Amino acid sequence: MTDRVSRTRSSRSGAARFAEAPAVTFASPRWFEDRWAELSGSAFAPRSHADPILACVVYALILFGVCMVYSSSIAAIRPSPSGDLDTERFFVRQGIFAAVGFGLIFLARCTDYRALTSKLWSRSIAGGALLSMGWVLLNGEVHNGAKRWVDVAGLFKVQPSEFAKLALVIWLAHYLTRPVSELKSIKLGLLPQLLVLLLLVALCMAQRDFGSAVIMLGLALSLMAVAGVSVLRLLGITLAGAVLAPLGILAAGYRWSRIQAWLDPETHKQDAAYQALQSLSALANGGLTGVGYGESTHKLDSLFGSHTDFIGSIVGEEFGFVGICALLCAYLVLATRGVLAAVRAPDPFGRHLAIGIVAFVLLPAMLNFAVVLNLVPTKGLTLPFVSYGGSSLLINCAAVGILLNISRRAPPVSAA
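Request: output the structure for the sequence above.
Response:
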């Protein structure tokens, strides 16, 4: 009788302990996160959820991009070896990239971003970026006069400049967390930052990738401003860039012709200004609410790059002014939640890294919209998460995954 009572009490205490334990099922996201934390050596302290609004906006942009690639890539389709039109080729590829991108977001969100603060990681990433950019100059493929891509086993092409921009953000975020006394020193603070920046910019210019060079300069200035670099140094870097930019433009005749076409589009409407005018025509055709999904006519024969650089024009034609505003609002929400994650970051490195990632996504997006609206000369910049392209999509997914990891380590709102 005594044994039966003791067994009953022990079973009740075991049931009570089981009821008090957190319910974690095999298929729950938390189960996978815990297993990945064990494998990667990262720990969640304090344990919290990543910013759900930021995550939902990013997922929506990726899915919307896959749908828009399907709609806008008709003009880029070429006959298959059998003679048929492979009308779903770009859609299938973008769908595969999106699936891999979701996995990268998950891995980056579950891996402690503070591992990047080590000198080994930061220097390895910066060195890898420089080596990959140099490799392009030696073994890259030339498209439209630009040497920016490397073929990987004949399966897909990689654009190392996308990785180099994120590597620059990580390098600067790590370097700018040094003591103020070192940052004020030109030898220990300013010179190493400028050296890496100038090398990457020079490699971009050698690849005829002026747009990426401008983005890198903008990323560096954004991070330095947040880190508290003196205004005089920021002005000096800005003035140096303003002086070197015209030299880079004049060094390549096609860049100067694009500026001339931008200043006088009517005179160059059959050559350098053709794309910009067709983009404006597509936006005008869309009107307020658009012609409907898949009903764009400019993607058929007049607007080249409709699934890459000018996918924003197709969004405007098919969804109208309302669609463009909604897309802009999505990027605005992404930027706002990213800045909030930076403000609530538990350490300076997380704050710098979050701001750098926000600029990494937002600067190309704003420049792409400016090109679509003919506010700046034509440049080959994709729209993050929306345009077709594996390198851009995967690197952006990895960057946003890191941003989500920073957001989940923020203290409660009351404590912040």
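Residues 4-28, 43-47, 79-85 have pLDDT under 50 and may be disordered.
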